[in-house]
Amino acid sequence: MSALKDKLVADFPKFRDEIAALVKEHGDVKISEVTISQAYGGMRGVNGLVCDTSEVPPDKGLIIRGIPIGDLTEKSPEEVFWLLLTGELPTKAQVKDLSDDLNSRAKVPDYVWRVLEAMPKDSHPMAMFDTAILVMEKESKFRLNYDLGMKKSDYWVWTLEDALDIIAKLPEIAAGVYRLRFGKGPRIPFDPSIDWSGNYVKMLGLGDPGGKFSECMKLYLVLHSDHESGNVSAHATFCVNSALSDLYYSLSAGLNGLAGPLHGLANQECLGWVLETKKIFGGVPTEKQLHDFAWETLNSGKVVPGYGHAVLRITDPRFMAFLDWGKKNIPEDETFQLVARVFDVVPEVLKQVQKIKDPWPNVDAGSGALLYHFGLTEFPYYTVLFSVSRALGVCAQAVVARAMGWPLERPKSVTTKWLKGKAS
């Protein structure tokens, strides 16, 4: 048995008992009220889900298992995945055990590549990535054991097995999609001597002078790993998995949601605006030029991409992590310089627009510039990179949900006629 499984076998029963006691003693306590505008407004602000892997307070930003994301920027994706599942950061020995386990599962079945190679050459990278995950569903250990009649108390064990199998293969799948879709040549073999994010960089084949791209990738994968359970990709994964659809089905559903322009497309839109601005000014504009251009953008009915957030009311700590990394590592890059200057200028402009509640940048305002610097310039691919990271969080959420025995998600819907009756 792996060190991770040993840890969860010891901890999950205690956590399950804690939740059972809370429900038994305080199950009737109300945690939210829903207005008609919230019902029509995508349920925004309605407390109706439980997520123990992370939370996003509006005045603090992402907190993973009690640790602010800004305190995790030196950690690896493997360490964060362990933290998501257990609530504790692993020891060096535990990290090595997890890394060895993932490496042992990393081989992608040959039939996956045959399926991807048969797809239209101009298929969207996300459709290819998602197809690869879904076509592997036959590998699901959860479904196999469910069909054999496993106990409900073992659901989490086989969900964890599926999670580890999937996560182990994501770097090779994602890199293979990149090279196939954009004509980069043959796939580059997985290297069991390096870590999860390092393998992703190696298999992309863009080069890694001085190891900076690997360092940047590690940061990216950590920062995007989880964002509580109310966002589209997390909620879709959670909902489908609550029907006991295995993680291949569930993760595929979540990534279909992440592919939507209102969820996973933001970083490329932000970078597109930055590059267009740089093109207009023939380089990095002065603060005065950028101030005037921001007003011109707003007055034309457009927005400055990457500024504002559905939940946060502060500068996203994940943006600050990218900004700090860029200042230390690529300060000479003009695209990054413009991202930094936008941060110096645009919030002060947005503060003057009364209807804008959050004038601060979110994570997407900075991430694209770093990717672009290292030669990852194919915008449609950016959501695949986001997906590799977000899989860590949504898979961890699924394991926890099955361990806690949470039921099928089934909220009640009402009609407009019913709401009119309530309003009268």
> What is the spatial order of strands in the main beta sheet?
1-2-3
Proportion of residues in helical segments? 55-70%
User: Which CATH top level class of the largest domain fits?
Assistant: Mainly Alpha
What structural class should be given to the helix and strand makeup? mainly alpha
What's the domain count?
2
Task: Summarize the biggest pleated sheet.
Answer: 3 strands, antiparallel
- The sequence of SSEs as H and E is HHEEEHHHHHHHHHHHHHHHHH
CATH superfamily of the largest domain: Citrate Synthase, domain 1
From the 3D structure, determine the CATH topology of the largest domain.
Citrate Synthase, domain 1
Low-pLDDT runs: none
Strand residue percentage = under 5%
Any overview of this molecule?
β2 and β3 form a beta hairpin. The longest helix has 27 residues. Strands 1-2-3 form a three-stranded antiparallel beta sheet. The chain is built from 19 helices and three strands. It has two domains: 197 residues, Citrate Synthase, domain 1; 108 residues, Orthogonal Bundle (Cytochrome p450-Terp, domain 2). α6 runs antiparallel to α8, α14 crosses α16 and α16 packs antiparallel against α17. 59% of the residues lie in helices and 1% in strands. It has 424 residues and is mainly alpha-helical.
